[in-house]
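Regression check, fe (iii) ion case 290:
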Amino acid sequence: MRNLDEHTITQAVLTRNASAPDPRLREIMTSLVQHLHAFARETKLTEAEWEKGIEFLTAVGQICTPTRQEFILLSDTLGLSTLVTAQNHKKPEGCTEATVFGPFHVLDAPRFDLGADISAGLPGVPWFVRGTVRDIDGNPVPNATLEVWQADDAGFYDVQKAGRAANSFEGRAILQADSEGRYHFKTIIPDCYPIPHDGPVGKMLEALERHPWRPAHLHFMIISPNHERLVTHVFREHGEYLDSDAVFGVRSSLIADWVAHDAGTDPYGQAIDTPWFSLDFDFVLNPIAR
Ligand code: BEZ
Ligand code: FE
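Current build output:
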């Protein structure tokens, strides 16, 4: 293949890739090449602009560390994460909706018993969270594993904090629901937060005159045999940024009342001398089709 020009280059690349043995890889690469070339044609992309694009992608890669995943931020802020989540989790009516995973989950979160305080001493307004994991028929799903993670009351995750020891965790836990599907734990109210915006994705948002903020939320990942894994959040009703989430993750069905209470007695019957909040939220898992 010689003398390729703007009209013949796309087919030349497709032909070169056509002998890839993995059919799915072939399909994905064919589509990717077609769309990338169409994008360059449609925008009449200049060399200087593509050089900037490569500089940007290089910076996205260079800022990545085990706790800073700029490519996830890029995918999230471009809406690609929400698109991929939505098209892979079409569920029967009544199932809890999934939303973006985000970059702040860790694999080695600590395990806690039900009822534990998972905040690890974070300052903030006490929050008592509970609910039941159910199946699509409304029956409790026993013994599901729930992973929970959250920002603190200033909007930071533990992994974002400088000087943190690798094995010290705040506001994250792995819990097991009981035989009746019930889960409950204590923590603190998380605040809204900006996604990390001191890198290339932040610069991109700035150039687009977009803000980096996410509405306050609590992350859950729920795993149970015979059910689809659920990755989701619970958002705070009437919270800020619900209609302009930087990563397009809000779904109405995931917004709940975080109920305020006066000092007095907490849900465990203990005296509490400050105001506190509670959240009741049930999850409905999608059965795996057999
Ligand atoms: C999060 O909710 O933790 C998150 C999601 C997407 C980008 C940044 C943070
Ligand atoms: Fe989050």
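Comparison notes: The pocket of fe (iii) ion (ligand 2) is lined by residues 102, 104, 151, 217, 219 (CB under 6 Å). The helical segments are 9-17, 23-43, 47-62, 70-77, 80-88, 200-207. No diff flagged against the previous build.
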